């Protein structure tokens, strides 16, 4: 069924792509991004920041290859159409205790509406991250158009 598919490109379009984001640790980055991203009515940057930090305190969201997937422990978006992914290219890579010990240079921050969708997004992203072509695009700080066309090709 079509409605089961998650449209990663659409989620990135909603969340935005942020470049050269400064921060010497995840929390500094989350503080900046939660203020930069356009949030739905009734949601504050503090709520997003606190949710991301609470999750990071439990276990690093770094997944290897210089990539992290910060997210809240429980879905924080009230509506399905408010879900988004913010792609954050860091100015300087940071140590997030990744399984492969590589410093993180890009984050896909997931702000989702329910845990089923959340897991689907995670598995779709994991598939993309397995692609050397996609990882190379991230290392080149690809823009939204480039990421979208790769996602179409690979997903």
Write out key terms for the chains shown.
single chain, 155 residues, alpha/beta, 5-stranded mixed sheet, 43% helix
Structure description:
The chain is an alpha/beta fold. The chain has six helices and five strands. The longest helix is centred in the last third of the chain and has 15 residues.
Compile the SSE list and pairings.
Elements: H1 8-15, E1 17-21, H2 26-36, H3 45-58, E2 62-64, E3 67-68, E4 84-94, E5 104-111, H4 115-129, H5 132-139, H6 144-154
Parallel strand pairs: 1-4, 3-5
Antiparallel strand pairs: 2-3, 4-5
Helix pairs in contact: 1-6, 2-3, 5-6
Give the helices and strands as they follow along the chain.
Answer: HEHHEEEEHHH
Instruction: Summarize the amount of helix as a percent range.
Output: 40-55%
Report how far the terminal alpha carbons are from each other: 16 Å
Determine the number of helices (DSSP H or I, runs of at least 4 residues): 6
Report the sheet-strand fraction: 15-25%
In terms of structural class, how would the helical and strand content be classed?
alpha/beta
Mean pLDDT across the residues is 94
> Which radius of gyration do the C-alpha atoms yield?
14 Å
- Uncertain runs: none
**Main β sheet profile:** 5 strands, mixed
Outline type: globular
The strand line-up of the biggest sheet is 1-4-5-3-2
What is the β-strand count? Answer: 5
Summarize the structure in short.
The chain has 155 residues and is of the alpha/beta class. The protein has helices at residues 8-15, 26-36, 45-58, 115-129, 132-139, 144-154; strands at residues 17-21, 62-64, 67-68, 84-94, 104-111. 43% of the residues lie in helices and 19% in strands.
């Amino acid at each position: 069924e079509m409605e089961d598919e998650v449209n990663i490109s659409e989620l990135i379009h909603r969340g935005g792509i942020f470049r050269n984001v400064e921060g010497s640790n995840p929390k500094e980055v989350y503080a900046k991004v939660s203020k930069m991203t356009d949030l739905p009515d009734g949601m504050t940057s503090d709520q997003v920041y606190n949710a991301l930090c609470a999750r990071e305190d439990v276990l690093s969201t770094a997944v290897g290859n210089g990539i992290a997937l910060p997210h809240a422990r429980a879905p924080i978006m009230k509506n399905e159409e408010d879900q988004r992914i913010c792609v954050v290219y860091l100015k300087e890579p940071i140590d997030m205790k990744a399984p492969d010990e590589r410093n993180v240079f890009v984050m896909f921050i997931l702000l989702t509406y329910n845990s089923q969708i959340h897991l689907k997004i995670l598995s779709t992203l994991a598939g993309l991250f397995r692609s050397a072509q996609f990882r190379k695009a991230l290392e080149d700080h690809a823009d939204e158009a480039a990421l979208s066309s790769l996602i179409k090709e690979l997903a």
